[in-house]
């Protein structure tokens, strides 16, 4: 058959039934509106969990030219080996610093675009002539409902509201675009252009997350099931496309080589769990994911899922997952046997629906395989891994629901009124499902409002999760609830006696209470467990500084910097220790390095300004104070420090003005400086 004839047949096979364009636009608008409503309360949610090291404490985002350098993400962060994610974060930071709404707006935009792309994929698949004959030309609205349920499902909140997990949603968008462009190319007279776009999307997705490795396989499976009739026929029909898609694996391979086992959090050499134990445990995890797909109650940010031990934990889940996998293989194999010579889209037979079920099962298991098979990942369960697999569930449920209603209408031989009532009830059920899921998403987003609310939720739902208690303690310290923080850390240590982070956080709580001896004991325990724990060395040094043991503190800060050379806070703290020890010039150098690493550090600018004032470098001091107040106009400490500089300069009226402002902001001006100012100016405030 000539290429032009084949294209014409494909155009007919993938053409929508006679519909007005408003239906497509209305369905798309409904998806966007419902998704935006479900996430309308997410824009001011806090950075949580891995957001902190990957965004808040990531100096790479702050460096001049960070966007240009973002192609090499920093080690030890979620975006390591994922340059597309890192570039997006650098752009967010360049536009709005650490204002969370911009990050959430980006995540939601990506998610809505992914939902629209899913709508396009399902719509065009259901527009196949044989499919639409079976589905009575309802493809547009079936696709709309499937994508709508996927967009508003609360299981997606971890990929959308949890900022750093844009790695999952970005990858998901490029994954869906890869398949969509492939499908568009099948019915286009410019197939090469659409297929080039498919390859480009696939390549970009490889730089977003490793799950993208399965995208070429999904495209091939779609081709074999819906178009060519077999894998070999698909490979033969598109000899140029599949090698090009496979070539994108080289990008992922290069990134994987550069990151190794992702900082010890993934890979066959992971010490925490063997590949066999991981695979057996994933049977129960997959069953849990499926339960959440149908009934999303009990969502949890941090499961700390235990390794499965014993037949009682493994066999029930193995039976269910094994049955689903066997059904998928059977559907694919039997539909292939029904068309031994392959088929053109326009020649699809009644076996097409069975093939579609097989493809949905294949989509679920293939997209989940990188994180839920034999390749160990340190965290055995995370909800964001269901971002793409959930599409198979919502699409399957939508089509199954339609077929059930259509079958009932046919069997009962309902008249026009009966058919109207039946389809009206089906529409109400679909609306209720979307409304219920969207409402649950809205409520789930409220848990992300603050770190405290999120970690309290995690600790309540997983009371034996040591990390959840430790993270809760960390935010309790910020809230000033030091005794509760100590109790939460002690509970974490009871659950996991060698959990270094819990000792570190308890040390922070003790230090906040002024109990520096107890804090140092906990920091020493951290260093015993993890000698290269830079934060513990820094925190230990901070307590030593408070105790006036400056030489020991300086040595400890230097060790922290040795283990983490871009540790801006350690440089700033080292400067403060040297400053107190009388080495002002060295302190200025340390503050300067801290500012280079973290230009938006109010404390470093303020402290360097104070040091400049002591050295008589008034103009440089004023420049630092101006920058500190630009970054935070309500920083009382900066007004206190600038009052000192004005006093040293002899500008007493300015000094008094800053003293008053410091007090209005709740600060406590240095009493010695105030007394000196009173004596020098000859008046009290």
Report on the structure:
The chain has helices at 3-13, 21-38, 51-56, 66-69, 83-96, 100-126, 129-134, 139-152, 157-160, 166-186, 191-206, 215-228, 231-237, 241-247, 249-259, 275-294, 311-337, 352-368, 389-412, 416-447, 451-461, 466-478, 482-495, 500-512, 516-529, 534-546, 550-563, 568-580, 584-597, 602-614, 618-631, 636-649, 652-664, 671-681. Helix content is 71%, strand content 0%. Among the domains are: 3-47 and 98-262 and 270-445, no CATH class; 617-685, Tetratricopeptide repeat domain (Serine Threonine Protein Phosphatase 5, Tetratricopeptide repeat, Alpha Horseshoe), CATH 1.25.40. Helix 28 (568-580) runs parallel beside helix 30 (602-614). The protein starts with a helix and ends with a helix. By secondary structure, the protein is mainly alpha-helical. The protein has 34 helices and no strands.
Structural class: mainly alpha
What is the molecular shape?
elongated
Q: Count the DSSP helices.
A: 34
Helical content (DSSP H or I, runs of 4+): over 70%
Q: Average pLDDT value?
A: 90
Low-confidence region ranges:
1-5, 337-350
Q: Radius of gyration in whole Å, from Cα?
A: 30 Å
SS elements, strand count = 0
The proportion of residues in beta strands is under 5%
Short note summarizing the structure:
The chain contains 34 helices and no strands. By secondary structure, it is an all-alpha fold. Helix 17 (311-337) crosses helix 18 (352-368) and helix 30 (602-614) packs parallel to helix 32 (636-649).
């Amino acid at each position: 058959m000539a290429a032009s004839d084949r294209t014409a047949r494909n155009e007919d096979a993938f053409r929508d039934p006679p519909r007005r364009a408003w239906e497509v636009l209305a369905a798309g608008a409904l998806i966007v509106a419902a998704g935006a409503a479900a996430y309308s309360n997410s824009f001011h949610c806090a950075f949580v969990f891995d957001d902190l090291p990957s965004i808040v404490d990531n100096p790479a985002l702050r460096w001049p030219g960070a966007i240009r350098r973002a192609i090499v993400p920093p080690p030890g962060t979620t975006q390591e080996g994922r340059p597309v994610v890192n570039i997006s974060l650098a752009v967010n930071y360049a536009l709005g610093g650490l204002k969370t709404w911009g990050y959430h707006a980006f995540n939601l935009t990506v998610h809505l675009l992914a939902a629209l792309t899913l709508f396009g994929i399902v719509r065009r698949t259901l527009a196949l002539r044989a499919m639409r004959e079976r589905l009575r030309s309802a493809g547009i609205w079936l696709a709309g409902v499937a994508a709508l349920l996927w967009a508003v499902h609360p299981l997606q909140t971890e990929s959308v509201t949890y900022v750093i997990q844009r790695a999952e949603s970005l990858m998901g968008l490029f994954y869906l675009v890869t398949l969509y462009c492939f499908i568009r190319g099948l019915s286009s007279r410019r197939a090469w252009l659409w297929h080039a776009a498919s390859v480009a999307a696939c390549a970009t997705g490889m730089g977003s997350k490793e799950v993208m490795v399965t995208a070429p396989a999904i495209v091939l499976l779609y081709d074999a099931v819906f178009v060519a009739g077999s894998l070999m026929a698909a490979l033969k029909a598109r000899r140029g496309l599949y090698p090009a898609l496979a070539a994108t694996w080289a990008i992922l391979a290069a990134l994987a080589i550069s990151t190794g086992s992702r900082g010890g959090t993934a890979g066959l050499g992971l010490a925490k769990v063997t590949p066999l134990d991981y695979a057996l445990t994933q049977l129960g995890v997959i069953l849990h994911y499926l339960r959440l797909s149908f009934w999303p109650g009990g969502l949890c940010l941090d499961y700390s899922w235990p390794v499965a031990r014993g037949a009682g934990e493994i066999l029930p889940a193995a039976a269910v997952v094994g049955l689903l996998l066997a059904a998928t293989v059977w559907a694919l194999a039997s539909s292939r046997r029904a068309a031994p010579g392959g088929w053109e889209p326009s020649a699809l037979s009644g076996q097409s629906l069975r093939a579609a079920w097989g493809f949905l099962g294949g989509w679920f298991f293939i997209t989940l395989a990188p994180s839920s098979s034999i390749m160990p990942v340190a965290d055995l369960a995370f909800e964001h891994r269901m971002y793409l697999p959930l599409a198979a569930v919502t699409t399957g449920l939508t089509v199954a629901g339609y077929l059930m209603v259509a079958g009932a209408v046919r069997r009962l031989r309902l008249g026009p009124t009966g058919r109207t009532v039946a389809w009206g009830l089906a529409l109400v059920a679909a609306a209720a499902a979307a409304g219920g899921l969207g409402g649950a998403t809205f409520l789930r987003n409220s848990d992300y409002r603050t770190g405290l609310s999120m970690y309290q939720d995690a600790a309540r739902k997983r009371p034996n999760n040591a990390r959840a208690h430790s993270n809760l303690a960390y935010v309790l310290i910020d809230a000033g609830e030091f005794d509760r923080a100590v109790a939460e850390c002690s509970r974490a240590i009871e659950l996991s006696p060698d959990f270094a982070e819990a000792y570190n956080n308890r040390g922070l709580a003790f230090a906040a209470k002024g109990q520096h001896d107890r804090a140092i004991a906990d920091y020493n325990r951290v260093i015993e467990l993890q000698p290269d724990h830079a934060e513990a060395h820094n925190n230990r040094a901070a307590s030593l500084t408070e105790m006036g043991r400056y030489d020991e503190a300086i040595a400890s800060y230097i060790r922290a910097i040795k283990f983490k050379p871009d540790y801006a806070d350690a440089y700033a703290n080292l400067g403060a220790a040297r400053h107190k020890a009388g080495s002002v010039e060295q302190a200025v150098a340390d503050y300067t390095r801290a500012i280079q690493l973290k230009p938006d550090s109010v404390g470093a600018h303020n402290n360097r300004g104070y040091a400049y004032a002591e050295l008589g470098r008034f103009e440089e001091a004023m420049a630092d104070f101006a920058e500190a107040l630009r970054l935070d106009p309500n920083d009382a400490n900066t007004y206190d420090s600038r009052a000192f500089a004005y006093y040293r300069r002899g500008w007493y009226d300015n000094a008094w003005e800053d003293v008053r402002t410091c007090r209005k902001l709740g600060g406590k001006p240095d009493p010695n400086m105030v007394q000196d100012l009173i004596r020098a100016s000859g008046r009290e405030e």
